[in-house]
Amino acid sequence: MIENLLKFKNDLKSKIYFDFNIGKLTWFRTGGNAKIFILVENNRELEIILNEIKNNNFYILGSGSNLLIRDNGYDGIILKLGKGFNSFCIKQNKLEVGASVQDINLSNFALKNKIEGFEFFSGIPGSIGGAVKMNAGCFGSETKDVIESIEVYDNNCERNILNKKELNLGYRSSDIKKNKIISKVIFNISYGTPEIIKEKMLKVKSQRLSSQPIKNKTLGSTFKNPKNLYAAKLIEESGCKGMSCGNAYVSNKHANFLVNEGNATATDLENLGKMVIEKVYNKFSIKLDWEVKIIGEY
Ligand SMILES: Cc1cc2nc3c(=O)[nH]c(=O)nc-3n(C[C@H](O)[C@H](O)[C@H](O)COP(=O)(O)OP(=O)(O)OC[C@H]3O[C@@H](n4cnc5c(N)ncnc54)[C@H](O)[C@@H]3O)c2cc1C
User: CA 253, CA 239: separation in Å to the nearest integer?
Assistant: First the structure.
């Protein structure tokens, strides 16, 4: 497989890197190298690449805003969708969006086209592929509210359309398996008033600025909220705010955010998360569940 990838390297527009520092592409800006990293240019090249790598271990990276790569790196292939997946198209009251589009750009596109219901995306710093996989949401709205279906590829290079029901979108979760690559997302649309849409987007922005340490290196909410409870409140009441491990600490602004102070390792961050889980468990007998995805070798 590696030999063939090396052969392809010059024929494809996609970029293929070996022993690539993938940690620097995540929002935490820490973690190890990927054995192979491929920035996939477009659908046609995705099919060629999948045909080559199908039986190998691979993982798909979006914008890395919810992903921690362990310091020993990922012993496999990491794929990231590139320019050819950064598209918008309105077709018969549906909006088709490439999976590498940034959530903020989708929100701005919707505003420009007077489409309502996409304001919350302006508060999430990921890609649309990642938003679907995680059923991302904030301030009372989530991806599930506007999605119709997705286009996915699997490791056998088969392309399928899955409708919303098949995705089983739940709280920060979906049934989309690890070997499925979301290439395009189809949304339902309804039209609204630009002034109201803009106002909602500004509200999302100000709520984020006042409540989250968005200028730090973080991965957003680290743990899922247990049913009818807030993880941040449990963490704060367990005395974790400001707690640190190496160069990682629990944000003083929002207790469910772990922050890389600059030189934190992925191990610092993971261990700090484990310390938080233990403290919350000791105080409330509730086991927090990671929202952040962690991959790589121990
Ligand atoms: C400052 C900050 C604030 C945040 N606030 C929020 C918030 O308010 N609400 C919220 O829900 N989240 C929030 N997050 C978390 C994160 O932004 C979301 O989970 C986001 O949807 C992740 O998208 P991503 O493209 O960065 O995915 P990644 O972090 O790269 O990956 C996350 C998961 O999605 C999968 N994935 C990514 N792209 C694809 C694809 N094309 N096909 C298949 N699988 C894919 C990955 O394999 C991985 O399992 C925040 C993060 C930060 C850093």
Answer: 14
Candidate of 27, 38, 46, 66 to mutate for ligand 1, largest count of ligand atoms within 8 Å of Cβ? 66
Nearest CA owner, ligand 1 atom 40: 129
Chain segment 103-113, per-residue pLDDT in tens? 999 999 999 99
Digit-coded pLDDT (tens) for 115-137: 999 999 999 999 999 999 999 99
Pocket of ligand 1 (CB under 6 A): 27, 59-67, 81, 99, 123-127, 129-131, 133-134, 136-138, 172, 181-182, 214, 218-220, 293
CATH 3.30.43.10 in the chain is located at 2-83
pLDDT of residue 54: 81
Architecture category of domain 2-83 in CATH: 2-Layer Sandwich (3.30)
Q: Which fold has domain 86-211?
A: 3.30.465
Give the strand pairing for 58-61 and 74-81. parallel
* Sign of the dihedral through C-alpha 275, 278, 281, 286: positive
- Return the CATH fold of 231-295: 3.90.78
